[in-house]
Design goal:
Blueprint (H helix, E strand, L loop, with lengths): L5 E6 L4 H10 L1 H4 L3 E4 L1 H10 L5 E3 L7 H10 L3 E7 L9 H13 L4 E2 L2 H12 L1
Parallel strand pairs: 1-2, 1-4, 2-3, 4-5
Helix pairs in contact: 1-3, 4-5
This protein binds 1,3-dihydroxyacetonephosphate.
Length: 126
């Protein structure tokens, strides 16, 4: 079984500022982990924290959520941090749901908002 050496970061469009601020705030915890992110989120995180090792997948609506779901199914992901926009309907809603289902199935710690992510990341990443 592959070791869970990745932390996955995903944020919907209206949540990207919050994700960039989150990554900056927790940069010391994230350093040393392989960060995987959907395309646009990864770009924002890399810009906010140039020293982090960020691997960018496709953008969410183009399959990025599914790519990260596959990593979860391979048991490579130690934690999923997904800042979901609860107010905007999205064309790839089924992909979002599938990603969350895999995180539940593979018992992957998953933070869907800032309050949870702030508390959980230090415990998992230290
Ligand atoms: O849509 C997303 C997650 O469902 C995020 O994708 P981007 O990071 O490419 O915007």
């Amino acid at each position: 079984m592959a070791e869970r050496q990745k932390i996955a970061l995903i944020a919907h469009d209206k949540m990207k500022d919050e994700m960039a601020a989150f990554a900056r705030r927790h940069q010391t915890y994230l350093a040393g982990w392989q960060i995987v992110a959907t395309g646009t989120t990864g770009g924002r995180v890399q810009e906010a924290c140039p020293t982090l090792d960020v691997i960018r997948m496709k953008s969410g609506p183009l399959g990025g959520d599914q790519q990260i779901g596959a990593m979860i199914a391979q048991e490579e992901v130690a934690m999923l941090i997904f800042f979901v926009d609860p107010l905007t309907p999205m064309p790839h809603d089924v992909d979002v749901k599938a990603l969350m289902r895999l995180a539940i199935l593979y018992d992957t710690p998953m933070a869907l908002n800032r309050a949870t992510a702030d508390r959980l990341l230090p415990v998992i990443a230290e």
